[in-house]
Every structure is written in structure tokens, then in C-alpha cells.
Amino acid sequence: MENEKTSQERRRQIAATFTKKIAQRQAMRIRGQKQKDRIVWFGLGMIGVVGWSVAIPTLIGVALGLWIDQNLPSRFSWTLMLLIAGVTAGCMNAWYWVKRGGYNIEHLNGETDEEETHEKRR
Questions:
Q1: Distance CA 52, CA 19 (A)
Q2: How confident is the model at residue 69 (pLDDT cuts 50, 70, 90)?
Q3: SS3 for the chain, per residue?
Q4: What is each CA distance from 24 to 15, 51, 113, in whole angstroms?
Q5: Which carries the bigger pLDDT value, residue 97 or residue 68?
């Protein structure tokens, strides 16, 4: 008898969780339909941020490397080394901005369940 009660309670709990998830997805879908233009511009803006966050450190690395190679000659190419360092720094910077943008989208979509948000970040 007690086994049946816990089984029924478990089923109710699963059904409630399932219903909640469906309601969240439906609300997100409706919100997306209302803000379709806004999402497109957000995506284009994110592309710009990512592009510049990679390009600027790369160009700074190249410029600094060229200056060092011209003023302090050595056997190593500082331009090449600082180009690689600039691209690496830029990619890390871009990753930060994309991750931050993804978090903002999740937050705007109403995903306030901390466990779900934490799992999606992994």
C-alpha cells in the first residue's frame, strides 16, 4: 500500500516537472516570436563584438612585434610570436563575451533554475 503511494507521488512529481518544462518552452517560444527582430540584431551585434575582440589584440600584437623586430633585431621573430599571443588573447576574450551573451539570453528567457543554468554552462 505504501509502495503505491510513493509510486503515485513520484508520478505526480514527474508530471508536474514535465508540465513546468513545457510551459517554460512555450513561454520562450512566444517571447521569441514577439522579439524576432530584436534577436536578429542581438546576434549581429554579438558577431561584431566577437570579431573585434579577436582583431584588436591580434593587431596590437603584430604592431608591437614589428616595432620590436625593427628596433631590437634578434634571431626570433617577435612579430610571429606576438601575433600568436594576440590571437590567443583575442580568442579567450571572444569566448568570454560569447559565454556572457549566452548567460544573458538564458536569463532573459526566464531560466532561473540554478541547477539547469549551471548544467548548461558546463
A1: 42
A2: very high
A3: CHHHHHHHHHHHHHHHHHHHHHHHHHHHHHHHHHCHHHHHHHHHHHHHHHHHHHHHHHHHHHHHHHHHHHHCCCCCCHHHHHHHHHHHHHHHHHHHHHHHHHHHHHHHCCCCCHHHHHHHHC
A4: 14, 33, 11
A5: 68
Residues in the chain: 122
Categorize the per-residue pLDDT at 7 as very low, low, confident or very high, splitting at 50, 70 and 90: confident
Q: Where are the domains of the chain?
A: 1-34, 36-121
pTM exceeds 0.70, yes or no: no
